[in-house]
Amino acid sequence: MSGSKPDILWSPHHPDRYVICDSELGLYRIGPVGSAEAKAGTLPLSEETAATLLAINSDTPYMKCVAWYPKHEPECLLAVGQANGRVVLTSLGQSHNSACKELVGKEFVPKHARQCNTLAWNPVDSNLLAAGLDKHRADFSVLIWDISSKLSPETSVAAEKIRLSSVDLDSSTVVTKPLYELGQNDACLSLCWLLRDPKLLLAGMHRNLAIFDLRNTSQKTFVNTKAIQGVTVDPHFHDRVASFFEGQVAIWDLRKFEKPVLTLTEQPKPLTKVAWCPTRTGLLATLTRDSNIIRLYDMQHTPTPIGDETEPTIIERSVQPCESQIGSFAWHPSSQNRMVVVSATNRVMTDFTVFERISLAWSSTTSLMWACGRHLYECVEDSAEGVESMIEKDIATKMRERAQSRYGHDTVQVWRNHLLAGGKDAQLKSLWHDLFYILSVSHMKQCAEDMELKLQGNVQSVVYSGIKNIVKTTSGTTESRRCWIGSDRQTDVLRYHSEERCLALRLCGWISRGTDTDVENFLRSLEQEHEWERAAAVALFNLDIRRAIQILNKGAMAEKGDLNLNVVAMALSGYTDEKSSLWREMCSSLRLQLKNPYLCIMFAFLTSEPGAYDGVLYESSVAVRDRVAFACMFLNDAQLPRYIDRLTLEMKEAGNLEGILLTGLTKDGVDLMESYVDRTGDVQTASFCMLKGSPGEVLKDPRVQCWIENYRNLLDAWRFWHKRAEFDIHRGKLDPSSKPLAQVFVSCNFCGKSISYSCSTIPHQGRGFSQYGVSGSPTKSKVTSCPGCRKPLPRCALCLMNMGTPVSNCQGTGKSDEKVDLTRENKLAQFNNWFTWCHNCRHGGHAGHMLSWFRDHTECPVSACTCKCMQLDTTGNLVPSDSS
Amino acid sequence: MELHILEHSLKVASIEKEGIQICTHGLIKLAFLASKTRCKFFSLTETPEDYTIIVDEEGFKELPQSEHISVADATWVALNVVSGGSNTSTSQPIGVTKIAKSVIAPLADHNISVFMLSTYQTDFILVRERDLPMVMHTLSSEFTLFRVVNGETVAAHNLGVTNGFVKPKLGKLPRPIIHPLSSPSNMFCVTSLDPDTLPSVATLLMDVMFYSGGQKESGASSEDSNHIRFFSFSLIEGYISLVMDEQTTQRFPNNVLFTSASGELWKMVRIGGQPLGFDECGIVAQISEPLATADIPAYYISTFKFDHALVPEENIQSVIGALRTESAAQ
């Protein structure tokens, strides 16, 4: 500590006091900024804390090391090791303490002078003070002094011999006879008492680490190493020790002392201090020379490194407590992760708390947990009903609810799936309607062969490939200029017709059948759903102003109807195709103030020039299907694909499921779904939607497979095993390639052949396991022997019947066709007959018997067997959380 | 007991007194600016005849080529005895005496020439690198051998020297002292200092090393012709060791030099009338064995031309007596 190299020591018992030692000792008290502001001379340490200098002691020159007495009384007693090897006891600000007085000023002098490198108080027997000294050819380097020792006659004799240094020696306070002398002809650079036994002293000697045992000083345990500086025991694991050499820290396990259990990454500059955090396990702080950062190594997850091969993982990070270069640091003894840092020059101090790493874990449901220091936080979704409408629920919650309501499983009325999903999500509604129209159109095409179709080729793939691809191939478009229905006034609106446009309109759901352009059915269904504005708009686009006005009137009169619709109807009835009329002028400007987008686009349509319908086409709050249908009717062959392409791109970027109408279930559709999943995480919808894509190419897409696997994993994680199985069945129907191959075979004990395999080769014996009673038809077939070698099958451990015999209490239905009646009872009966056995003891029998046995027992039913079969099955004890 | 074979490759050189000024730059760098060189082993001993330098290869590069410098034509390796695992806490005679019987005598018996350097901290036994296999073979029965490699101590294995290479001499031969002895009148102090305080006394040390030979010596020699000019400084692996006479110690400020609690002083026995050379073996053994028998602690410093033993002042008469008897027995 020669001026340039300061050090800090926290008081072992006062959490607010510490000593800085450089050329002198300074005792500081740390406190909150506010309380100390009145006093002059306080030094701010951080935003909240400041330090006050309490006392200075400059009695001991040539300080090399300092150690604070570990016991309460006398407090503030320090041992100072000097450059000439002497150890002096001194104190700070304790002048009136009598207990201290006896000891203060006491000096411990080695036989031969050399630098004192380190000091260590015994933590239990606090009279013992170990001093580590440099090498002398004939002297010991580790001296253990007893500070309570009275001066013996022989030491006073020794004092007589002192000639050179007699000047400053007061023989009454000088002790020259150490209690123990260890490490002859060696140098000691660092010392620490082992916490596991206060009689053991660990010393970093010249080229080895040595453990001295005070009970037998002629023996020592040692290991040759370079890493001998700064030995320090982990206060939380008494067998773990850190030491360093130049830039490298070695961690030792005293139980395996032959070599370091690990060495930390080497620093370019030599280390000056290494210290375990006393308030947190496995945190080691290191400081190198000329550095302004403290490097932390977190060995939290590796309390006891086992074996040679396992290199424990260590999390390394750096903290920068202050701008200037750090001279030294010291962990606070009790305040968590707190340290005081002193700069290399000018004694600038900083109070600093290392922020704890945060580790975070999501559960498969919506809760989130994180740990910081000694705190564990859990964040759960607020399930209170009141806020439900305010905040959207987490997607995991939504998916769980939807899985329970069998979302995705309605394969007939596909559009109903959005109701199963809660019926609140407009995009899902649009998606399932799209899928419904796609499926119904393709289905119709398959059935109605009579329909005259120009789209020969692969009809189905065209339907699945979305409107974008359909309109691309459009040809033979005819134009027509029609009158307003119910009036003979000619419109100047051009309407386009073609097979493809018609198909597109059907996919949009506007028309339902054939080339018929009648939208009456559609209008009626809209009226039923009270979508008055939309119905009016559709009627108007079909050039039926009168119908539109009717619809609006109906809407105004309906229950909870909006009376303003009458006003709109009045405005509509004033339509004139006069270009410069007041009506036109007012409508085109005032329409923007209408809140309902459909009302808005109605006037946009009426007031725009023919062929320029941007006011309709780019009104983003209008459903995509309506805009597309509109485009199919009024855009020419050049405008239409351009508009559809642009809209498709927009939908893909936004991940808007309405766009599936345009992309269909193609690669484009997968792209769109990808951005939807990226945005929402809804793998459930993605999985179900893509399963509908019958061409199969989309199912091979790795992204789709990834969604499906993730959804299955999610269901498993929620313990929705029945749902998962249901999903797998559903998936197997739509994607036959996903059906797993048989993975379990029952082989005969005698001939080793699979009993199912051998019977499947003989056709007249039926399929698979059905004849072993598994099919639920006990009376029909009953095979209790191996079809290969005719030896009997093993017996059930409980009923002692040969396997293949149906379970006696099974109420089989007698119907062998399993597809006909899959009642719960029937299915259970089949499973009850199944073979099952413990993989450990190999005992088993009928699945039904085993299930009922293990409901009450943990041990194997075979009398001499003590196998705890059920406990070996870790998942067997879990209960599925879905009821099915 | 452990014997550590250190990794330094050492050169032993002699600088004539009149040639010292051309070397001072390098020597000052080696002695006081250790961080500027990669030298780990440096020793400078001034005798009335010359300056003896022991330095490792890195440090040797700092010295100029000159006709004033003669270098012994061998590379030397330093051995160091460490008490090791079996730590007997009984007070032993210190220094060369301790290792006289276990190291020095066996090496003398095998005709291996040694060069001794005692310091405040320890004793170094220098042997020629080419003799190392023989040394290891000779000492492997007594010692656990370790080699220092990159600062790490590793067990050294016998380098395949088979038995019967040279038959050890059977029985104990008398080892008469062949060289003349002299004992200067001044008393010496073996001491050290804190490397941190070295800069504060650097100018004083330079003065002692290079400039105080002239007037002071002449003044002293006028009153006592038996007075000898002898000063040794070594900086080995960061440790400083100093040997100087009592008058020189007075020139240092208080509390800088490490002194033993008992403040012991040493007298010198100087061996050799003619320069001893490097090939003769058994010289150290001749001196150290009688001292070991009499249980007298000693330092032993070999220089390019002569050897020097330091013994406690109160023992000097009995030492001279003992050695004379040996010599007379011849």
UniProtKB/TrEMBL annotation, chain A:
GO CC terms in record: lysosomal membrane
Domain GATOR2 complex protein MIO zinc-ribbon like: 748-870
Localization per record: Lysosome membrane
Pfam family name, one: zinc_ribbon_16
Keywords: Lysosome, Membrane, Metal-binding, Repeat, WD repeat, Zinc, Zinc-finger
A single GO molecular function term of this UniProt record: zinc ion binding
InterPro entries membership: MIOS/Sea4, MIOS_a-sol, WD40/YVTN_repeat-like_dom_sf, WD40_repeat_dom_sf, WD40_rpt, Zn_ribbon_mio
GO process annotations (BP): cellular response to amino acid starvation; heart contraction; positive regulation of TORC1 signaling; venous blood vessel development
Domain MIOS-like alpha-solenoid: 399-634
The family this protein is said to belong to: Belongs to the WD repeat mio family.
The protein's name: Missing oocyte, meiosis regulator, homolog (Drosophila)
Gene: MIOS
UniProtKB/TrEMBL annotation, chain B:
GO molecular-function term, one example from the UniProt record: identical protein binding
Main location: cytoplasm
SUPFAM superfamilies named among the record's database cross-references: ACT-like (SSF55021)
Residues of the CASTOR ACT domain: 73-140, 263-324
Domain CASTOR1 N-terminal, first and last residues per copy: 9-69
Protein name per its UniProtKB record: Cytosolic arginine sensor for mTORC1 subunit 2
Subcellular location: Cytoplasm, Cytosol
